[in-house]
User: Fold this.
Amino acid sequence: MKYTVKLEGRSFSVEVGDLVGRPIHVLVDGEPFEVWPESPTAEAAEAAPVGDTRRLAAPPAPASVSAAAAAAPGAAGADAVLAPIPGVIVSIAVQPGDTVATGQELCVLEAMKMKSPIRAPRAGVVGAVRVIVGQQVKHKEALVDYAR
Amino acid sequence: MTEDPRILELRALRDRARQGGGADRVAKQHAKGKGTARERLHQLLDPGTFNELEPFITHRGHEDGDEEATFYGDGVITGYGQIDGRTVYAYAQDFTVYGGALGEMHAQKICRVMDLALRNGAPIIGLIDSGGARIQEGVRALGGYAEIFRRNAQYSGVIPQISVMLGPCAGGAAYSPALTDLIIMVEKKSYMFLTGPEVIKAVTGEVIDSEHLGGADIHLSVSGNAHLAAPNEAEALALCRRALGYLPSNNVETPPHLPEADSPLRMDEALNHLIPLDPSMPYSMHEIIARVADADSFLELQPTWARNAIVGWARIGGHSVGIIAQEPSVMAGVIDIDASDKITRFVRMCDCFNLPLITFVDSPGFLPGVAQEHGGIIRHGAKVLYAYSEATVPKISIITRKAYGGAYVVMSSKYLGTDVNYAWPSAEIAVVGAEGAVNILYREQINRAADPAAERARLAADYRRQFNNPYHAASAGYVDDVIEPRETRPKLIAALSALRDKYAPAPRRKHGNIPV
Assistant:
């Protein structure tokens, strides 16, 4: 989609890419930007550890337009649960549409001689399960998306 | 009798100095949920112990300017007082005067209390609330910062230096804290950055607000620059008081020993049931620390950054100690770049201030990956080795489960100079895990076997029997004893007593060259 945006008397030609994917790719006067839309559930960036009742470590991703080169690798889709470490998925406990509570097991990731349960960082509804049992995942690869 | 007019004049001047930037600005500060510099000092120190120094200092050149427009104290309150009956020196920047911005005389006042703190072997505490350098003073303000930074560096490891961040702290106001031992922030009220959101927007086009750029959440869980955070000023100042309770006043004093509130002979049966029989199931190292240390004595530093590693102060039998550990329920307890940074800085801080090091080991190794290797994990891991090797304080280690490869070596292993080395019966000490080992050692044998998978499983089981226990290491003298988990507390207290007079002088040199 193409827009013309007027800001402080200047016009910018803005081309916005796929709105579903994260980041959203935007061209402003031909210069590429990556946009991470703010979401109230942005804390979901990292899975909660076992038995950890402290507040989640990952801060909400800011509603910001950052130059492509500066985009933090960890700031992926604010509504996805990401792999905290590279490893292999050994089991999956949820399906799309499931309602999950905070701390509920989503899947188990085996890495570095340990089967670590990946838990829901917040309550919500599972949107998509992006992995299958036996799949090798990379660091910060999305495992499960929230629908809401 | 009428009062002497000279005394009345002093009282009037003192009143004026105490007004800071005036009632309007004080009201503004209060409206933001913030205290004034004096209120904060009184909250930090034992009641009635604060004595101010140099309250009448004004910025240079005020003689030519408007007398009414100058502020006594030049935007910073300095002096000494007590915390739990022990002397500390402190300064508090006054945001109501020039936004706490640092000028030449302001810096001179800070340097003065830093020098007094050093000479008298007492901690220095900075309550930081400053917009940075005072632009009107030009190079004099920059030179003032340099004077402070030089002292931060030279006094490092001699007296504890603590920074409590209580407002927006930009540029130089963030550098001095970075050189100190401990940074405490207030959530949603304090920020640290070298260049603020506006400069960043102008230079790189990135749009971000102060909170997401350098708020407490960011420095506690993303950058690792700060150590502790509190929801408000009062709790941040209380954390500062609590932290000092673990530290000696200087590097030749021993840390304060508290009368034992918790039995030194207490054996916690639950410890014997904490480690799952399946070595691939996680457990909580935090729980082990809480059960071994004196009740409620563990103060974890950087609890939300590099959570695969744990560092913090605790008391064990009343002894003040530094605890380092892996958390197997976070990233399996691997050691990565951030965990290396976290462990190294903490080990060195404890060594500076004579706190014994107690290391709980459960790590499968260093985190494999291109990003880690390209990010310099070699030099970051090397500094963990450097710090443990260099530390001359009593060092005790307990291997609770996995101690594989590099992780075994760096985490306070015996021949890095650890004084007492314990292992639990669940310990596994080996170069690599069983599957990895047999694939390398018996590749030919496995390939030739009629059923390679079965042969691999048989060999792995043999390997596990041989190495996945602490007795192989104990028989070779790499573990001093194998103990039941419940015995850990009394064993640690006995070891701390036996090592109390440890004397291990380092060779004379200018200083080492730690990889950073």
Q: What stands out?
A: The mean pLDDT of chain B is 94.
